[in-house]
Amino acid sequence: MPEFWKRYLVILAFLLTQGLVSIIGGLVFAANPGENVIFPGVSINGTYIGGLTKEQAFEKLNQEISQKQKSARLVLRYGDSEWVFSYDALGFRPDIEATVDKALKMGHTNNILTDGLEIFRLRREKPDFPVEYTVDNEILKSIQAGIMSQINVAVKDAGIDFEGSRLKINREVTGKNYRASVNDIKIREALGRLQVVPVLLDVSEVRPRYTASDLAGIKEPVGLGVTPLSRGNGDRKENIFVAVGALNGQLVRPGEVFSFNQIMGPAVQEVHYRNISTVADGRAVGESSGASQVATTLYQAALYAGLEIMERHPHAVAPGYVAGGQDAAVVLGQLDLRFKNNSMTPVYIHSEVKNGRIIVQLLGARREGETVQILTEKILNTTSSGISGLHTRVYRIFYINGAEGRRELVSQDDYVSGQ
Known about the structure:
The chain is of the alpha+beta class. The chain has helices at residues 3-31, 54-71, 96-104, 112-125, 137-151, 180-191, 234-247, 260-271, 291-304; strands at residues 43-44, 47-48, 73-78, 81-86, 93-94, 128-129, 133-134, 159-163, 166-170, 175-178, 199-200, 203-206, 220-228, 251-252, 257-259, 278-280, 283-285, 308-311, 338-340, 347-354, 357-364, 370-382, 388-400, 403-415. The protein is built from nine helices and 24 strands. The chain is elongated and about 105 Å long.
């Protein structure tokens, strides 16, 4: 483009801009009612105050809002429940002066372009603003706490209990959480309107992990593990109760792999579960935290249930609470117990500490006529250095209607000493 045309376009753009500014400035000057007068189009709480002075708007609003406050109610609603409060009960105090000052500032910024656009917006949109106010925050907080206690419901998975020898399925419960911060904003916005318009409270739902339909097909105990609760130190016992509680109610769907450590992880973070075992040469040694005894009890149940063992580690020394070869050592982040549900139905874990025993039952559905036997062979030996040891072989035998169907070697372990 020739240099002449470039200069021409620059000059033309400048002139157009200046002209636009002049036009807008003229409109602002013509439409500006004065610094102490509110621009036309503005309302507060349904009361029109456009074209009024600050003093006139204050007087008009003061009368109107005082009347509205007497009949105004804060109505909170959730489902079929409703809570109604008078404004006086909330410690509501309108700030008329602050409200008028806010309205007066609209279109009075001393910026021609900004004020011009604001004038057009106010005339076109005719905004209706809420009143500025203060409220007793402690009262409002107490009201929300009371409503929250009525609405909140803890989520609960479907589960299974025993009624004598029969299984009873307990249905799930969907959790409900009153969203205090969100509702606080909604309530405060409604208060500024002084209208009897219900505020629909925001409540989130928490879906349970398992529903009653997820437990379909579970009809009987398929595996049982029992170990004695020793009279050990308090920390160890507390850890056992934590681990048993974390296991109870877990569901392993067909084809899923269950990890003991994966379940214990959240329990560790939540209650500072102490794992004081150490690992050397891939074996757990040292004092047990109690987790391994719970894992061992679960391992026994998994063996009798016929589940596929994916990972299991023996202790360096056979523990006294179970026969050698049937233990399962776990150390968070290092040694795990994992098994796969290779059946056609879900497996539900029911665990408890009862009558001085740790009891883990696996509930599911066994093939008709099938029973399982665990056979442990023990061989005492002595190393060349004179240290006594124990070698074990554990077999799992499946019977169909009393006849042996198949036999599998589950594990072979060597212990420094043991039973």
